[in-house]
From TrEMBL:
<feature type="transmembrane region" description="Helical">
    <location>
        <begin position="224"/>
        <end position="246"/>
    </location>
</feature>
<dbReference type="Pfam" id="PF22776">
    <property type="entry name" value="K_trans_C"/>
</dbReference>
<feature type="transmembrane region" description="Helical">
    <location>
        <begin position="303"/>
        <end position="326"/>
    </location>
</feature>
<keyword id="KW-0472">Membrane</keyword>
<dbReference type="Pfam" id="PF02705">
    <property type="entry name" value="K_trans"/>
</dbReference>
<feature type="transmembrane region" description="Helical">
    <location>
        <begin position="60"/>
        <end position="81"/>
    </location>
</feature>
<dbReference type="GO" id="GO:0015079">
    <property type="term" value="F:potassium ion transmembrane transporter activity"/>
</dbReference>
<comment type="similarity">
    <text>Belongs to the HAK/KUP transporter (TC 2.A.72.3) family.</text>
</comment>
<protein>
    <recommendedName>
        <fullName>Potassium transporter</fullName>
    </recommendedName>
</protein>
<dbReference type="InterPro" id="IPR053952">
    <property type="entry name" value="K_trans_C"/>
</dbReference>
<feature type="transmembrane region" description="Helical">
    <location>
        <begin position="20"/>
        <end position="40"/>
    </location>
</feature>
<feature type="transmembrane region" description="Helical">
    <location>
        <begin position="394"/>
        <end position="418"/>
    </location>
</feature>
<keyword id="KW-0812">Transmembrane</keyword>
<keyword id="KW-0633">Potassium transport</keyword>
<keyword id="KW-0630">Potassium</keyword>
<feature type="transmembrane region" description="Helical">
    <location>
        <begin position="456"/>
        <end position="478"/>
    </location>
</feature>
<feature type="transmembrane region" description="Helical">
    <location>
        <begin position="198"/>
        <end position="217"/>
    </location>
</feature>
């Protein structure tokens, strides 16, 4: 499945108001599930221990004032009006910001980047139209130069992005736990305390196990229910809020004044500051507005939040405050929670809706965790994992089995270990605010380097929002021993794995570059070793974008034979969300024409979907054929005579040269002279016999006087090689630190990287190459 570019998607999404409103409705279930269920646990977490509800109502009104202004300033002002504009060609999230900075300041951590990558359409511009090649002036130019010169600053920037990513993964563990546990806690109002504790925890665990167990089915089958559930939940809490306001305290709106925040802090002092960790939970899930931007449009997300989510949440919090302002006798801790403000006759229906909403909110963060891990893996910052696309129609619907079960085990562990919303809230709050702080830091650089705005605007942005978030961060961090240690521990483990993998990947690439073989050595093989050429198409997988990898020289010196057509294949990621189909392939020639050796670089964005092996083979052969035709038409071969191996041509996934794909067993071959359109079509085998049809398919080269005899012969050999079978030759490198290396390097390479490499997927799996056609060549890398 070929993914359209993000910019094209946004254009398509903005065709009509009907489309925008439809997307706004759908975003309720995907984007706002986590944020919408926060009223379940905010007041309960805030009043858990640090402050107490008194008859003066200064505490409850102060908390309401903090909630109102926090929701107004962070989700509404920061994200809706500012951060959403910093999308990367329609994609959002921490890595979208990092990707923008990589392109505008050349701080890319990917070792295989080329100048040709900067010619990609999505590389040159972002959604607001600013070009990465636009000259910088003043402070921006100085900042860009500093970042490009100092590798330490580039590493700090990468680590900052990875910290935000790790905290998102931690949030994927904590959000389902606190959401489901808080929703289920409503049963405690309907039974005695001795009984409900035996129901609450098992019920939460059963729901969580079911939630994670159903992930492999994908959400597209039940996704149509997500938006109605959240819509029903928002209408429910807003209606209850309006009822409580008019029934208990119509003057509660006065608490929206910032003056009540001052009174709150003046009375409660340090305990009030510590309680901010609970108030912080009212904005959990705000980052999803930016992270899930790729599935919707900016306008649809803004409309959904400003017209429905924001007013519903404010009414819900005001309603709870109005009820609590008239009820000061606290018999137990749950009397300060959400369900106590729900009319008794509605508690069971609301409980059911709350559980459904909690499941939807948890599903959104789990899917977001899968997505961000896929992005990290594409950019070389996370071990290769199995990625299953659960829907062929809905972009972004993926499932990662290993990560899913790890999240489930961790989620059950924290739920069983904590068993209360207080410590779960402390843990979740720290993860949420850390991600927001990272976004604020990266946004300040985007404002200067990408938007070309005044440095004063960037400083004002950091000071204003950074101060607010730093206040909440300090209040969460002080609860380290009361649950806040969990996201720190999780982030540390994931960050350690990411940094180790990235370090090992860079060292492996450096070894390949230092030990690559010259083209002249390859050209002299047939004379020195008596190399035999066998029928078929050989794909040599390599990370190098130039030269011949050492793994191939190791292979051919031990087995002096290779295929009649040889392709050095490099599949790499570039720091853009999507690469357009017409810019996918870079194809070049190694050596003279008669050697039939090519280099093909396949470029994917960090959000692109890799094709299956059969469709990929078809596109690869088509791109090489198109290169041969273009080369003949432009007389490139006559100019270079195969000596310049760096000369590459951009070729799309679909070309316009060869005609048709036929099956030997279905019908007789058509007459090659038969007139028709000249088009390469990727093979489309029947579903039931995909593996069998694969070896039968061949291309038919049309007889036309426009094709020179030499070019026709080369195309025919390419066709025969494809029919003879495709062999994938992969390098299986074992990494070892050199003798004399430091302790840290030996631990990172010999233990850390090798452990991750052995227990994750290799290049063969990433290319989805068939087992029967794959040959792995082992080699030890001493780095």
């Amino acid at each position: 499945m070929e993914i359209e570019s993000g910019s094209y998607q946004n254009i398509a999404k903005k065709e009509s108001w009907r489309t925008v409103l439809t997307l706004a409705y759908q975003s309720l279930g995907v984007v706002y599930g986590d944020l919408s269920i926060s009223p379940l646990y905010v007041y309960k977490s805030t009043f858990a221990e640090d402050i107490h509800h008194s008859e003066s109502n200064e505490e409850i009104f102060g908390v309401l004032s903090f909630i109102f202004w926090t929701i107004t300033l962070v989700p509404l002002l920061k994200y809706v009006f500012i951060v959403l504009r910093a999308d990367d060609n329609g994609e959002g999230g921490t890595f979208a910001l990092y990707s923008l900075l990589c392109r505008h300041a050349r701080v890319n951590s990917l070792p295989s980047c080329q100048l040709a990558d900067e010619q990609l359409i999505e590389y040159k511009t972002d959604s607001i139209g600013s070009s990465s090649s636009m000259p910088q002036t003043g402070f921006a130019a100085s900042l860009k130069s500093t970042l490009e010169k100092h590798g330490v600053l580039q590493k700090i920037l990468l680590v900052l992005a990875l910290i935000g990513t790790c905290m998102v993964i931690g949030d994927g563990v904590l959000t389902p736990a606190i959401s489901v546990f808080s929703a289920v806690s409503g049963v405690e109002l309907s039974m005695s305390k001795e009984h409900h504790k035996y129901i609450e925890l098992p019920a939460a665990c059963i729901i969580l196990i079911g939630l994670f167990a159903l992930q492999h089915y994908g959400t597209h089958r039940v996704g149509f229910l997500f938006a109605p559930v959240i819509l029903l939940w928002l209408m429910c809490i807003s209606a209850i809020g309006v009822y409580n306001i008019f029934h208990w305290n119509p003057h509660v709106y006065e608490a929206l004044s910032p003056y009540y925040m001052y009174k709150f802090l003046k009375k409660t002092q340090s305990k009030g500051w510590m309680s901010l960790g609970g108030i912080l939970l009212c904005i959990t899930g705000s980052e999803a507005m930016f992270a899930d931007l790729g599935h919707f449009s900016q306008l649809s997300i803004k409309i959904a939040f400003t017209s429905l989510v924001y007013p519903s949440l404010i009414l819900a919090y005001m309603g709870q405050a109005a009820y609590l302002s008239q009820h000061h006798v606290i018999e137990s801790e749950y009397n300060i929670g959400f369900y106590v403000s729900v009319p008794e006759k509605l508690r069971w229906p609301v409980l059911v809706i709350a559980i459904l909403a909690a499941v939807v909110g948890s599903q959104a963060i789990i899917t977001g965790t899968f997505s961000i891990i896929k992005q990290c893996s594409a950019l070389g910052c996370f071990p290769k994992v199995k990625i299953v696309h659960t829907s062929s129609k809905i972009h972004g619907q993926i499932y990662i089995p290993e990560i899913n079960w790890i999240l489930m085990i961790l989620c059950l562990a924290v739920t069983i270990g904590f068993r209360d919303t207080k410590r779960l809230g402390n843990a979740s709050g720290l993860a949420v605010i850390t991600v927001m702080l990272v976004t604020t830091c990266l946004m300040s650089l985007v404002i200067v380097l990408c938007w070309h705005k005044s440095v004063l605007f960037a400083i004002a942005f950091v000071v204003f929002f950074g101060t607010i978030e730093a206040l909440y961060f300090s209040a969460s961090l002080i609860k380290f021993l009361e649950g806040a240690w969990v996201p720190i521990a999780l982030a540390f483990c994931f960050l350690l794995a990411m940094c180790t993998w990235h370090y090992g990947t860079l060292k492996r690439y450096e070894y390949d570059v230092q030990n690559k073989v010259s083209v002249n050595w390859l050209l002299s093989l047939s004379q020195t070793l008596g190399i035999a050429r066998v029928r078929g198409l050989g794909l040599i997988h390599t990370e190098l974008v130039s030269g011949v990898p050492a793994i191939f020289s190791h292979f051919v010196t031990n087995l002096p034979a290779f295929h009649q057509v040889l392709v050095f294949l490099c599949v790499k990621s570039v720091p853009v969300p999507h690469v357009r189909p017409e810019e996918r392939f870079l194809v070049g020639r190694i050596g003279p024409k008669e050697f039939r050796i090519y280099r093909c670089i396949v470029r994917f964005g960090y959000r692109d979907v890799h094709k299956d092996d059969f469709e990929f083979e078809g596109d690869l052969v088509c791109s090489i054929a198109e290169f041969i035709r273009t080369e003949a038409a432009t007389a490139t071969a006559a100019e270079t005579n195969g000596e310049d191996e760096d000369r590459m041509s951009v070729v799309g996934t679909c070309s316009t040269y060869m005609q048709g794909i036929e099956d030997h067993y279905e019908s007789d071959l058509d007459d090659p002279n038969k007139p028709g359109t000249s088009e390469i079509r990727s093979p489309k085998p029947k579903k039931k016999s995909k593996s069998k049809i694969k070896k039968r398919v061949r291309f038919v080269v049309p007889e036309t006087p426009k094709i020179e005899k030499e070019t026709r012969q080369e195309l025919m050999e390419l066709t025969e090689a494809r029919e003879g079978g495709v062999a994938y030759i992969m390098g299986n490198a074992y990494m070892k630190a050199k003798q004399g290396s430091g302790l840290v390097k030996r631990l990172a390479i010999n233990i850390g990287y090798e452990f991750l490499r052995r227990n994750t997927r290799g290049p063969r799996n990433m290319l989805t190459s068939p087992n029967a056609s794959t040959l792995e060549v082992g080699m030890i890398y001493h780095v």
